[in-house]
Amino acid sequence: MTPAHRIKTLTQFIVERQAQYPHAKGALTRLLNDIATAAKIVNREINAAGLVDILGYEGSDNIQGEAQKKLDVYANERFIEALKGGGECCAIASEENEKIISFQNEFSDLGKYVIAIDPLDGSSNIDANVSIGTVFSIYRRRSESGPGVLEDMLQPGVNLVAAGYVIYGSSTMLVYTTGKGVNGFTLDPSVGIFCLSHPDMRFPETANIYSINEGNYIYFPEGIKRYLKYCQEDDPATLRPFTSRYIGSMVADFHRNLIKGGIFMYPGTKKQPSGKLRLLYECNPVAFIAEQAGGKASDGIRRIMEIQPKTLHQRAPFFVGPKAMVEKVEVLLKTYSSEELHIK
Hints:
By secondary structure, the chain is of the alpha+beta class. It folds into two domains: 4-198, Fructose-1,6-Bisphosphatase, Chain A, domain 1; 209-336, D-Maltodextrin-Binding Protein, domain 2, CATH 3.40.190. It has eight helices and 15 strands. A hairpin with a 4-residue loop joins β8 and β9. α2 packs antiparallel against α3 (70-86) and α5 crosses α8. The longest helix is centred in the N-terminal third of the chain and has 21 residues, at 27-47. The chain is globular. It starts with 9 loop residues before the first helix and ends in an 8-residue tail after the last helix. 46% of the residues are buried. The model has no long low-confidence stretch (mean pLDDT 90).
């Protein structure tokens, strides 16, 4: 157990890092604290979900055509409120909203950032009491002043200022990067404070986990089928056969694989050639974290963070994990699936 005098809170950590940059004005610090505040509110409701009328479906669909859970709607509202009230961002793109939410209030000329967010990733698992999460991307706005516009959002991942996720599980953690490594903070529920628990997170040198929805096997490109067979072969020198682990919440699957060592895959399929995950607020933030942790993220052909988004809810095939595992997938896709891929 870390001695009490050595405990470092999220706020302390962010402020100390900010002090390393002479031109930092504190806006990003306040923005990350706004996200942490909203995450604590959402965490409280998730923990009480079985005791109050917040489980189940809301009765409406989001822009993806997916039935909205009550907690989806609740989380979306809380993050929007916190980010709008904080005044550090001028617009939000959310999985739950068709268009960007542009702030037209006294803060709109002050917000230097825009945020793309999935307020509650893996919400299909809510009623089963399985780990879910929040994932977010932070960009500097491109427009000079006023409420944010769509063009502020349509930026490639290489322009990210910060990105992170919150995982609501046996403990609640916030993991983020500003391009200077990855650090994780665990929420102490007794005092409601995120404390540094996982400094300088990196993928382990050895990795033997693969995460994919194998129920879609018949729809996978041939290269993915070959990779799965590779994972299942007996070869102790390369730790094979690998272990299959799939939760169905991207944040939870990626978090486990970051800590234990493994690849997460959501390929394009015959039914969904562009995959299911959204580029701006799912693939890009996780890719940024992965690269900062010594890993790699790809759509099977290109570096995820170099893809120029054309639409707000654009989807992309997604492979993220240790470099060697992702590169093996890329080789097999190139060798066996070149004619099947419809990546745009």
